[in-house]
Amino acid sequence: MQTEDNKVRSINERTAVLEPAIKFSRTIYTAVAAKASAAPQDGLPEVVMAGRSNAGKSSLINALANNGKLARVSSNPGKTQLVVYFNVDQKFYLTDLPGYGYARISLEKRSKLSSLANSYFIDGRPIKLVLLLIDIRHLPSEQDRQMCNFLNETEMPYVLVLNKADKLSRAQAGQNRQKILKALSAENIPNFVVSTVNKAGIDELKNFITEHIVALG
């Protein structure tokens, strides 16, 4: 017969199994920075989001946090022109880099944003994982290829997040996924087909991020 202490211990053990190691619902907007030197300096690891301006990075942040009002989603691609930090459960930062490749902003501003995004990876930030977002409806752009090559050359851990899967049938999404992986020579890179609209693939991506961060200790 179980004693009261044993019952409490049993309940706590079951709760621990069910309790996620990282609660994405505890994601808060933290800071913005125009350069890496102005970024948070508390040493928390970073999961960096990179991709074209219209790849849906802000929507993905909201989907991961299950909070549609957390990151500002603009109908005008290229709106995010600073590095934006979101603290996830005091475990890591979800870092949103300015999107690249949007033609409607000036050449000078595009150059500054590109420089900011590129320099971020070589400024000694505690980057532990990069989420490279690509619109699954389209083949990778030249900037996407350059980013992939850079991540491969620097041996930086990254995954491909093929977003906007709700815009295609399941068969089309599967076909496009194979084309994108082949175009990037990324068949061996972890990849996730997701939709921020119907939340397909979001839990799988959260589990991967959690396992990666937890494994760092």
Automatic annotation (TrEMBL):
The keyword GTP-binding applies. GO terms for cellular component: cytosol. Its cofactor is Mg(2+). It comes from the Bacteria. One of its GO terms (molecular function) is GTP binding. Residues 43-215 form the EngB-type G domain. CDD domains: YihA_EngB. Coiled coil: none annotated. GO terms for biological process: division septum assembly. InterPro entries: G_ENGB_dom, GTP-bd, GTP-bd_ribosome_bio_YsxC, P-loop_NTPase, Small_GTP-bd. The keyword Nucleotide-binding applies. Keywords: Cell cycle, Cell division, GTP-binding, Magnesium, Metal-binding, Nucleotide-binding, Septation. Necessary for normal cell division and for the maintenance of normal septation. HAMAP family: GTPase_EngB. Belongs to the TRAFAC class TrmE-Era-EngA-EngB-Septin-like GTPase superfamily. EngB GTPase family. This is Probable GTP-binding protein EngB.
